[in-house]
Design a protein that fits this description.
Blueprint: H1 4-7, E1 14-15, E2 18-19, E3 46-55, E4 64-66, H2 70-77, H3 85-97, H4 105-114, E5 120-124, E6 130-132, E7 136-142, H5 150-153, H6 155-185, E8 197-199, H7 208-218, H8 228-238, E9 249-250, H9 253-258, H10 268-286, E10 294-298, H11 304-315, H12 317-325, E11 329-333, H13 341-354, E12 357-358, E13 364-365, E14 370-374, H14 380-392, E15 400-404, H15 406-409, E16 419-428, E17 433-435, E18 453-457, E19 463-467, H16 470-473, E20 478-479, E21 482-486, E22 489-490, H17 496-503
Parallel strand pairs: 8-15, 9-10, 10-11, 11-14, 14-15
Antiparallel strand pairs: 1-2, 3-7, 3-16, 4-6, 5-7, 5-21, 12-13, 16-17, 18-19, 18-20, 21-22
Helix pairs in contact: 2-6, 6-7, 6-14, 7-8, 11-13
Length: 505
Amino acid sequence: MLNVEMLNVTMPNQTMFGTFSILPVNFILDVDSYKVAHKDEYPEDTAYIFSTVVARKPNKFTDKVVVTGHQMNITKYLAGVRVTYEAIDEAEIEITNAGYDFDRAPWERIIALHGGRLPLEIRCVPEGTVVPVGTAIATIVNTDPELPWLTSYVETPFQRDMWKGTTVASICRAIRVALLEYAEKSGTPLIHVDYCHHNFGDRGADAHEAAVNAGIPHLLQFEGTDCLQANRYIKHYFGETRHHGVSVEASEHSVMCSNSNAEERCDFGGFVKMLDRLETILDKIDKGAKLAPVVSIVIDTYDTYRAVKEFLGTRLKGRIERLGARGGKVVARPDSGNPIEMPIECINMLMDAFGYTVNDKGYKQLPAYIGVLQGDGINQESLRTILNRLDEEKLALGNIVFGMGGGLTHEAGRDEFSFAMKATARCTKDGVWHDLFKDPITDIGKRSLKGRVTTYRTADGRIFSDRIELQEVNKQLHDVLETVFLNGDLLIRYDFEQVIARARA
């Protein structure tokens, strides 16, 4: 019998160099380094700095953003912060070595007067709310007049997760809108859209948390995901009990190759294995198991056209039909070739083999037990191009589902909607507020808001940002921003179901 020593496997957190623990975050160091010196760069009579977070520009496909990410972000990086002398000691070493003059006094003040908690007020648009670009989605102000620099000091951790979550959620909303429009146009039941856009982004993410920061906002718009960890984060940070995110059994090339005759470049055995798996799944469902009666088979290991025409469409056709009669479904996944044309070709080849119906809208639909998954080369642009090609061929949306990887984790960058956090007001020690704003002549899109602002909703549903004083003269305006964080405490915990409802409105 094999044992750990024979396999040369080490136990968790233990390596040949010794035992390691997880390195905790030091809040003082969790910033862009230039923040360290800013406290000495403000005018000496500064008591408060008021800042706003804004998505400044639309992307190519939408001028609205879905605000999300701040609940998890604040909980992880701000609400749990307790500045300690140990953290100050470490920060002093690191910051001094980085070339900055480090001042312990303000951090020791936070310990002495605030118990190590951050004296800040953060107001945010409720999670899931859809707002126009250019709108203040969050505001931050210090509550200790001796620490005005602290407002901007938290920019790095606060904005980091918020822009990512909001960007992914906004991209997914725009995609959902496009899919709903084509579903209705092509006579496909709208429920199909919930599962029509699958998250393939985990392996392409920069890190564990980067995968989660894309995985959770994707689930605001769609039900299908391969990001298993997203649901446990939803449970933890939203107190959710319902499971979010489902998937189906699927092959990959290692499976197909392992069941192939490599010398003959024939992966027929992989297709047989996956149909065996579908039969097993259906048998378990018959006995009461809650499983998805679907298998996805990657079809391009050697020859996509042979796989569809000969394997699926001829030699295995009868078995697929029989499994379909039991409620099973086979999804063919091309993973190479022209990402625009390949799914169209596959649908047409499957229609040649299995037939199709023409729905009330005049669009062709494969039998319910067979379909196509396109996950290669999918981003915001290519997905819409494929929808246009489907329309040209009069192919219903129900024939296809999409998987998106890098389009969620990498193409969704901070510049997608030009996210920024900017100081918009300064209060002097005599209590007078002064407007601050950025207005570069070289880029009007980077113009910031002015003054102490909030975000309003009118009686007819219009959302915009303006000065907080406006509510004193117009009582009909509803202040959308809510105080979610105050002096170290998280005040509001949003329900994830409500977040979904707002995001899909």
